[in-house]
Predict the 3D structure of the following.
Amino acid sequence: IEKGCFMMKKLKYEEKVNRLEKVIKSLQEERLDLEESVKLYEEGLQLYQSCKEELDGMEMKLKIILDGKE
């Protein structure tokens, strides 16, 4: 999992969202065994958390920029 988190940092935001969409589609549409489902779920959760952190950071930057213009 540590290695996965490291790899998440290297992906661009759009790449993470695209991969997350693929993970969700696989979980919904494919017949996966329990182990594979759990692995995909973990990956999806890591992708979601990474995207959320990035969005939260951008939101904070925009707030600082907009607050400085008032």
